[in-house]
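Example 5.3 — B box-type domain-containing protein
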Amino acid sequence: MTTIITTTQKKPCFKCDKGGGVFTCDGCQQSFCRKHSDEHRQELAVQMDTIGQECDALQRDINKNTDINSFLSHIDEWEQESIDRIQQAAHQARVDLNELFKKSREKMTTIVAQLTNELQFSRTSENYTELDFKKWTVQLNELRHDLEQSISTCPFDNNDQNSIIHLIKVKIPRELCPWTEPIRTFNQNPILINHEKFNKKDQQIALSENDLTATYFGDDLHRSVNVFGFHQYLNGTHHIRFQIKKKANETFFIGIVTYSQMDPSSVFFTTAINGWWLDSYWISNGRSRGKQCMSDILEGDEIILTLDCNQRRIYLAHPRTKTLLQIRIDDKKCPLPWKIVVGLGGIGNCIRIIN
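Solution (predicted structure tokens):
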């Protein structure tokens, strides 16, 4: 019986490729001779030292970057800015609240005074019936309800309920917003809305649509051409609505003059003229004043002129931009009754009265 002896062939050294490898590294799975196995261990030791040094460097960077002073400073700035905004909001809320209650009282006082005058007149003239009693009772109940609502209703508005800090502000009711005053009065007193139309005019103005539309045509006079309204206004509050039909390069004038003024061409030479050049300035007692105008007037826009004869004031409202202007009238220079006057600044300008 013959016995066959087999020998296992050893892997050569990974470094020198000579001799048999006597050491196999579990990490890289390579075989090394005696000499190079020692060198491989030294290489691993160097790599270990390198990783240890990187770990130490990282710890030093962590220690160095733990200074939070800069972040704390940022929080301090945010805190102060928030306090400033809160103080500003609180100050504005106090101002708005005082103004809200002032306007509310003025509104109620004016309405009650009008009702009181009506009662006194009816009592003196002995001109009243059960229907008047019913109307006055309804008015008094409505006023009482408005008064109680103004006292009990919270006027505050927190603008962002999802925010940690709610900036308080006062809610101004729509009926007390200044620019809506002519429209609000318009709705309350329809009897005082006159069916106005144009009347006496410069020759360069053409009237159409039953004298409701005025257009500047013909030769350029290098000045505005003007037209008066038909009605005279002695007392009460009246509203005249205009629509800008066509706007040339020049603007429009809308205002009043005393009813005795007869010549449209010389109206701007009298102290009785009051009103506004829409894109420019305002005129009081015949004199040009500072800039108080309506910018961004477009074709198709509606303009509302309000004449408050009792308070000697006129208002001009531009609903699209929510703009309201007013002028106090000196009745010594512009005595009642009044009439409206419209000036067309350039050829092609066209304006219409809306009834």
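Remark. Residues 1-6, 175-193 have pLDDT under 50 and may be disordered.
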